[in-house]
């Protein structure tokens, strides 16, 4: 089964908790703090494995949770960092954030990796909080929570050559002849519902990867038929081989087929029309095909390479392979994915990242004030509420962020309930 798009949930590991501990050596009175830090939580990392061809592994397991870092120990011993969770993906995988639809990584080379969900740092032990005023603090910090994110994995085939054309024009047959690929072929429309890859070797020992892509129909760029599922795979190809049925046995006009498919490629807005195109006039073993080819050439009136072949009799197959290999040699260093603005211009891109200190105050049905926001929720999770000094530190942090003033502006009075992530506090003036 070919799987080329999946949605999965990722949870990086939380950091280990810091510890409150003191030196206990004999004959050392008033031993100072000796609580170690927690270890870093595991990050979720995606890595390319060239042995994989599909995203099948992610079809049945959709949730991935990385390990937590070890807690700190006494005698200033730090907890061990957790090992990163490495997920293997095939070359050509694009990772996108579901919420923002932003591309997080585009992985194409073997061994290439990207950290998608970052593990939380370890909480600090009490020895980290020692000051001249407070030389023996009796509180420590919990580990930072790891990032949680929902992503889509999208696979775009890394083929040099893409076979395009209407259903049943002979793309799969051609691929089966020139490579060891064995696509399932039947005498009905839309036989190919998943792309097939094949390695092709020319008689002069030049090799390239060819993809037989599902049949295009009118409206594919707008998602009709297999639509974007097909066009997504054309994006990475360097050369487009346009297979046309010249026999006209199915009542279609070859020139009309050619025009429709080129319109769909252009409408997809990924500069597909700029790629070199070779027209393959297939089914030339049928007598009517020669007349159709002449009419096609007259209507075309463009300097496009047309190679007449017959997949049935194997006529001109070698000539086609030579032509494809020669065209690939000419464009092998061209990056068709680059936009016009990127060519020859080096720019630094500064992205706006919203401040983490932002918070929002709402009211529950029972009149309680609910405070939410990344920074305050992170502080809440990292505070040990069993320790009074840690609670007082949390109150100071809230005050410094301006939450107290904001609550007063919303009308909070002495004794009102304030909620943060399920925890309840009394507002004290």
TrEMBL record:
Gene3D superfamilies noted in UniProt: GTP-binding protein OBG, C-terminal domain, GTP1/OBG domain, P-loop containing nucleotide triphosphate hydrolases
Biological classification of the source: Bacteria, Bacillati, Bacillota, Bacilli, Bacillales
Lineage: superkingdom: Bacteria
Residues noted as binding GTP in the record, renumbered to the chain: 165-172, 190-194, 212-215, 282-285, 310-312
Predominant location category: cytoplasm
Keywords: Cytoplasm, GTP-binding, Hydrolase, Magnesium, Metal-binding, Nucleotide-binding
Name of the protein in its database record: GTPase Obg
Domain Obg stretches: 1-158
């Amino acid at each position: 089964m070919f799987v080329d798009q999946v949605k999965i949930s990722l949870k990086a590991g939380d950091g280990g908790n810091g510890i409150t501990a003191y030196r206990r050596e004999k004959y050392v009175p008033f031993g100072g703090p000796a609580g170690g830090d927690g270890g870093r939580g595991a990050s979720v990392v995606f890595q390319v494995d060239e042995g994989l061809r599909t995203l099948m592994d992610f079809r049945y397991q959709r949730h991935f949770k990385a390990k937590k870092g070890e807690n700190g120990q006494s005698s200033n011993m730090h907890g061990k960092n957790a090992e990163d969770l490495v997920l293997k993906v095939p070359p050509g995988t694009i990772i996108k954030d579901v919420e923002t639809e932003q591309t997080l990584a585009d992985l194409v080379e073997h061994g290439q990796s990207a950290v998608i969900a970052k593990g939380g740092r370890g909480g600090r032990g009490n020895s980290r909080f020692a000051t001249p005023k407070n030389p023996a603090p009796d509180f420590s910090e919990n580990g930072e929570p790891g990032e949680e994110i929902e992503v889509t994995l999208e696979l775009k085939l890394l083929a040099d050559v893409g076979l395009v054309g209407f259903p049943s024009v002979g793309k799969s047959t051609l691929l089966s002849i020139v490579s060891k690929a064995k696509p399932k072929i039947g005498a009905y429309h839309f036989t190919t519902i998943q792309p097939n890859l094949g390695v092709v070797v020319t008689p002069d020992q030049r090799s390239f990867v060819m993809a037989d892509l599902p049949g295009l129909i009118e409206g594919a760029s707008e998602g009709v038929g297999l639509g974007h599922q097909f066009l997504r795979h054309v994006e990475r190809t360097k050369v487009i081989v346009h297979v046309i049925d010249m026999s006209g046995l199915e009542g279609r006009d070859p020139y009309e087929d050619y025009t429709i498919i080129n319109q769909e490629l252009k409408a997809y807005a990924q500069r597909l029309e700029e790629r070199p195109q070779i027209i393959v006039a297939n089914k030339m073993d049928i007598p009517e095909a020669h007349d159709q080819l002449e009419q096609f050439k007259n209507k075309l009136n463009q300097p496009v390479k047309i190679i007449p072949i017959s997949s049935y009799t194997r006529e001109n197959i070698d000539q086609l392979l030579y032509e494809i290999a020669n065209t690939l040699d000419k464009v092998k260093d061209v990056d068709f994915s680059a936009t016009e603005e990127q060519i020859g211009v080096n720019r630094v891109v500064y992205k706006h990242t919203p401040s983490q200190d932002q918070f929002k105050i709402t009211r529950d049905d029972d009149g309680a004030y609910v405070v939410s926001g990344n920074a305050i929720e992170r502080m809440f999770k990292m505070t040990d509420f069993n320790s009074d000094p840690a609670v007082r530190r949390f109150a100071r942090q809230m005050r410094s962020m301006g939450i107290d003033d904001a609550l007063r502006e919303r009308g909070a009075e002495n004794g009102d309930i304030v909620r943060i992530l399920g925890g309840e506090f009394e507002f004290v003036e």
